[in-house]
Amino acid sequence: MSLAEGVRDGNVRATAKLISLIENSPGEAEPELRALHPYTGNAQIVGITGSPGIGKSTLTDRLAKRFRKEGSRVGIIAVDPNSPFSGGALLGDRVRMQDLATDPGVFIRSMGARGMLGGLARATHNAIRVLDAAGYDAIFVETVGVGQSEVDIVRTADTVVVGLVPGMGDDIQTIKAGILEIADVFVINKADRPDAHRLVIELQMLLGTSSHAEAGWVPPIEQTIASTGEGVGALRTAIAGHWEYLHGSGELEARRRNRYEAELQSVVEDHWRKRFFEYWQPGGHWEQVVEQLLRKEIDPFSAAQQLLAPFLDSNTGG
Amino acid sequence: MSLAEGVRDGNVRATAKLISLIENSPGEAEPELRALHPYTGNAQIVGITGSPGIGKSTLTDRLAKRFRKEGSRVGIIAVDPNSPFSGGALLGDRVRMQDLATDPGVFIRSMGARGMLGGLARATHNAIRVLDAAGYDAIFVETVGVGQSEVDIVRTADTVVVGLVPGMGDDIQTIKAGILEIADVFVINKADRPDAHRLVIELQMLLGTSSHAEAGWVPPIEQTIASTGEGVGALRTAIAGHWEYLHGSGELEARRRNRYEAELQSVVEDHWRKRFFEYWQPGGHWEQVVEQLLRKEIDPFSAAQQLLAPFLDSNTGG
């Protein structure tokens, strides 16, 4: 039985193994991903992001439990671009939620960046594809930081939840710096802290002046205390509301179209790049051209033209 | 007279015009850049980076004046990836240093990201190429923030100066997060603030445990008060010391080789990408494939293979 068949069959070990293959030997994973592609597109992909220390993993775990109670099968991918660790089910304080880790309806996976061949965003995207084809109804993608790479990862979700906590001075700055545009739902966690109300007001003001105001969806601002579970039901309802909006408005298809287009472009470029270097690297050709540049015997534009010639022949208008 | 000839001739308007062309019509700028390439490689390129508010532009201006006093001609490129403005000579508080702006031995230019065709890093790199060929002896590239794009820009410099100020709690965190590796010289500005000494100690400890300790160059830690000019002479000496190290150790050639290699790769990919879309976009071919992906009639890997076929014929081992 192929890995793809195992995944479709609900075999957790095959699922885990294919995700490892995606991380370590993306080329070998390709035939399996091809086979799984027709079975994807059913899961709701929920991205959860926000600064470190806001309680993202507790929030994710609480949400996952809610989805479980509704009978959904849940996948959780915790992405940390700065972590050297990858592949384990337990990441940091995830240990806390052992009951989730032992629930057969839940698949938990951490993904780190170090030593991974190919990009983390692409690997995450393909891991989502696997869980989607494996029949998980909801897939949570939790990113650890708020850098550009995390934003790139989380924006591939259908619904992006941005978490904040009161009293972290840089939050509104962070939001202004790009998080605002990708948020579908805001959640203020640790909402029993004194400044919670002020943060709500600040957010509302920001939202009022943003482009969201003209769009069909204004991100709701939910308040939770993840450690006790308070407010998680309302957050779950907000996520459901966004899912309905995505379906009703045609926005789901638009987002998925964009996602497929970005993926296609990235796969095309990777394959082409691989071929290009297979052609030019043997015999040190590539290095020789770099030396010529250094000695000013050629300029980079003429050099590029020469190197591209075999790939741009008469077929392609060259 | 071509723009390239004007640049070589010391014509400031031609220089400014060519940089605008690089920003707005990179394709048209190419022949000029080809012509200028043989005349490059003489300037010392000094990158200056650090969090907002540390006094980078004052520091750059003070340094520029020092270089001027030594008889050097100086180029200053202030890069702000978040700014919609580009092309003007005066950016923000740069107005302060009007004496520099009117000095014919100084060329000042701001570059922003919005509306720029092609990447900002590439445009900056080509603007440096122009100033280098125009005979500026030192070129300062000042970046406004500390994000990944700023790091990408500043790491193309020969000498990277990382600025810090005492009492900004996140500094050491920022340094740990990637700035440490690119710094050739540290400068603690506003060094009359109370915590300056502690910051020096913390930095020394970080440097002691870093890979720098094994390399041939340990970044010196200079202290300045840019507003009064105090310490700027020592900073100038540290930059000179690094320049000597680069020449003596062979590191300059190694850095430039890496830079040319990265540039060549990026030019090759841009040219190829342009050709690829010229081939597939007319008639809506590209969009049709994306629709097929959305309808699961094809998977992204097979789709990529089909789209690449005309570019990978028998010539290239296809």
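The first helix of chain A runs from residue 3 to 8.
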